[in-house]
Specification:
12 strands; single chain; four-stranded antiparallel sheet; about 325 residues; Rossmann fold; alpha/beta; eight-stranded mixed sheet
């Protein structure tokens, strides 16, 4: 694959759209004009409520869905224009950890064969060497080599997600999309999986797109965070900056809902309660998509779509309050 002329960025998403035709003229605008870049070796958190389009964004980036419009550049190459050998090379360099550890593992395959499938497809090793590689991967994610001969139903949710992580590492990717990898797990297991992902990143120089709806957990793993609402990005900033100074009214509302362990602060701080339901992505509001629930909406919010603009260094927001 070609070298990226902008070596800092492993991934550049430019004006990405993914629309689904529902028939009878109805179109679901799951992802609508999303742009962001991810630096080599960092974790970019993508957060928002259920149905905001974050998982569809991840699946379009990895080419499970064709893009309706826009570009996804990975190491400088357009993912949706790859052909032949380049597709296989791309599939080796970008992997995905799926949300549901119960549905994403083939129940008829042993754990060893699940992890070894990618090794076989890419011809990385065979025989004893393949076996040792599978054992090594199981131990890397905190499981035992004897687990290789068992089937997925014999494991807990947390263990299954570790198997999913081992599978994604088997072909030594550069970039991993983690699509809500902890949302189906018990709270006590979530931190273990996040810490495992952080350790693997340090040891292997991985880059992550970490998709989640839990803003508190995303802060622990992300360098930068993008906040999505109804198919569009509302705000993008450094993780600490976003928590210290959220600018978009939607981000402010999301952060106000995170409980703080100090009872004094928790008692006095203001909760922002959003009115109404999330509109349908089939028929989104005109102008700013958040305006129907925004406590600071102005007449111009209904008339035109706010652009994602840099209003402070490396802090981008799509809101007319900052024009």
């Amino acid at each position: 694959m070609a070298n990226n002329p902008n070596a800092d960025y492993i991934l550049e998403v430019k004006n990405l759209k993914k629309h689904f035709d529902l028939g009878r003229g109805a179109v679901l605008k799951a992802v609508d004009n999303v742009s962001f870049s991810i630096k080599r070796g960092e974790t970019f958190g993508l957060v928002g409520e259920s149905g905001c389009g974050k998982s569809t964004t991840g699946r379009t980036i990895i080419n499970l869905y064709n893009a309706t419009e826009g570009q996804v550049l990975f190491n400088g190459q357009d993912v949706h224009k790859l052909q032949g050998r380049d597709v296989k090379a791309f599939n080796r360099k970008m992997q995905m950890i799926f949300q549901d550890p119960y549905a994403s593992l083939n129940p008829r395959m042993t754990v060893g064969d699940i992890i070894g499938e990618g090794i076989d497809i890419h011809g990385l090793s065979s025989g004893r060497q393949r076996q040792e590689r599978i054992y090594e991967l199981l131990e890397t994610v905190g499981l035992n080599s004897e687990h290789a001969s068992r089937f997925p139903h014999e494991f807990s949710g947390g263990q299954r997600q570790r198997i999913g992580i081992a599978r994604s590492l088997a072909i030594e990717p550069e970039f991993i999309i983690a699509d809500e990898p902890i949302s189906a797990l018990d709270v006590s297991i979530q931190a273990q999986v996040v810490n495992l992902l952080k350790r693997l990143q340090q040891e292997r120089g991985l880059t992550y797109l970490f998709i989640a709806h839990d803003l508190a957990m995303v802060k622990h793993i992300s360098d930068r965070i993008g906040v999505m609402y109804l198919g569009a990005l509302a705000e993008v900033a450094d993780a600490n900056e976003l928590y210290r100074k959220p600018l978009h009214p939607y981000t402010q509302a999301l952060l106000s809902a995170i409980p703080i362990p100090d009872p004094e602060i928790e008692r006095t701080r203001e909760r922002i309660i959003l009115e109404g339901d999330v509109p349908s992505p089939v028929n989104p509001p005109s102008g700013c998509r958040f305006r129907t629930r925004c406590p600071k909406a102005m007449p111009e919010c209904a008339q035109s779509i706010p652009e994602l603009k840099e209003v402070e260094p490396d802090h981008f927001v799509a809101c007319f309050l900052y024009n």
